[in-house]
Each structure stands twice: as C-alpha cells, then as structure tokens.
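Order emerges. One example.
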Amino acid sequence: MIASFMALASTADATATDTAAAEMSFFSQLERSLENLTNEGFVAFLWDLVIAILIIVVGKLLIMFFTRMFKRMFARSKKINELMAKFLLKVILSFGWILVALVLFEHMGINMTPIIAGLGVTGVILGFAFQESIGNLLSGVMIVINAPFRIGDYVDLGSMSGTVTNMDLMCVTLATPDNKQITLANKLVWGNPITNYSYTPNRRVDMIVSVAYGSDLQKVKADIRQLFDSYPEVLKDPVPTIEVSKLNDSSVDLIARPWTLPGDYWKIFWRFQTDIYDKLTDDGISIPFPQLDVNLYDIDRIGGDVRQRRPASGSQTASQGWHA
C-alpha cells in the first residue's frame, strides 16, 4: 500500500513537472517568436503584424457571420426558445475566439501541442479551484436543456421572485416589481424549486369575500359576477368560479376565481378589493370585522369590588370577536 502511495505521489510530481515544463515552453516559444519578429527586419515584422491583424479581423468577421446565421436558425426553430438561443450563441462566440487565438499562435510559430497536452492535468487542478463556476456552468446547461422558464417570464426561484431579464453561462438575472435587479448563480437556480407563473397563457386570480351570517349569498354571488363581467381583463373562458369555500366562526367565506392574462393579474386583484366593498355596502350586505366591546363601571356609585359583581341586566361584559 505504501509502495502504491509512493508511486501515485511520484506520478503526480512527474505530471506537475510536465505541466510546468509545458507552461515554460509556451512562454519560451512566445519570447523566441517575438525576438524573431524583431530580428527579421522592419518590413518582415510589419508583414507579420499585418497578417496577425488580418487573422483577428477575418476571425471576427467569420464569428459574426456564423453567430448571425445561427441566430436566424434559432429564431425559426420551434424547439429552441430565446433563453436557449442566447446561451448557445455565447458558447459559439467563446469557441470561435478560442479557434482564432489558436490560429494566431500557430502563425507566430508557437507549438501548441505541449500546451494542449498539459491542459489535461491543469484542467483537473483548475476544476478543484473553480468547482463553483463549473457547477454554475453545468447548471446553466441543465436549465437550457429543460427550459423551465423563458426570458420575460415571472418566476419564483427559491425565495426570490421577479421577471427573467437575462441568462448567461453563470447566472440568471431577475427584475422585481419594485425595480430591483437580482442576480442568482445558475447552481442556486437549478438547486431550488422553480415556480413559473407565465408558463401557461392564462392565470387564475384567487380572492376571498367574507360576509356576515344571514346575508343573501345569491345576491353576493350576483354582485361578484357583475363585477367580473365589467372587467375587460377577465376572460370569458374559462368561466370564473364563485362558490362558498368556508363557514368560519363569524363569517361566510366565498371564493372568487376569475381567469386573466399574467400581465393583468394585479390589475384585477387590486381593483376588485375596492369594487366589492363598495358594491356590498350599497346593497346593504354586512362585512364582518373584529370589534372590541368595553364596559365601564362607576365604582363609587355601585360600591364594592367590580370583580365580584355581575353586570346589570342588559349590560355586556368586555368581549372581543367578529361583528357584522
């Protein structure tokens, strides 16, 4: 076992030595290439410089061409959404610039073979150093493949809520209703429950209407239905649900569930709260609310300890509860 450990250690040392040698070789070749360029004369140096600039310019033009081509292809595809398209375009862009850099180094006479060979071990070392970044990258790939949300969707990502405005290789950006920007690492997004309120074209608004016992429930339902019919944002199909949901201790609760577009959710919710109060008040329907009754006693007049006396007939003790 000790021999195996020593062999493993010697292998790791040898690998680290090879990696260091490859890195030194790269910088040595780079230094030698720059010296050769300066020693070849001004004309030759200028010509090599022009070729290097042409490689960068042509590479940039090719990258722009392929990026636009793939962008049009993704736009016509029904299986690739906007989020996936932006992610893939960034991958193509990064890969394109890596190829341009390799061609440029080859033009400068730098042998990239030992560098590429040394990247294997270097990649393992960097993997441990940047495991969080790699986790975010892989989580971003899973988000793109499964597409749980799109750009413009309103979502809950763990404890955060907002509209998805952007996504890249490392993070997702949300815009909250109060104009705050939230940036979440892809690893946190994929590792928590994702609730998408914009996944379907319609959204249901759930609201509770409480009335006192003895109220005309059919009249209350008619008032709610009349309000929904007057809202242009409420969809006719599916039909809104208006039913008694619960018999509380001091109130009868009705559930009101209209359907609307996701963008009109809060318009209906806030408007209904005011309109239903005015409507029920105009129709004489009582809305229960908590009320505290306080009884005052004149000790000098009644004498004795109030705690030992019961209230006179018709009076009420201090109480708290729901009253209509």
In short: Confidence is low (pLDDT under 50) at residues 1-24, 312-321. Residues 148-196 form a domain with the SH3 type barrels. fold (CATH 2.30.30.60). The first helix runs from residue 2 to 39. The radius of gyration is 36 Å.
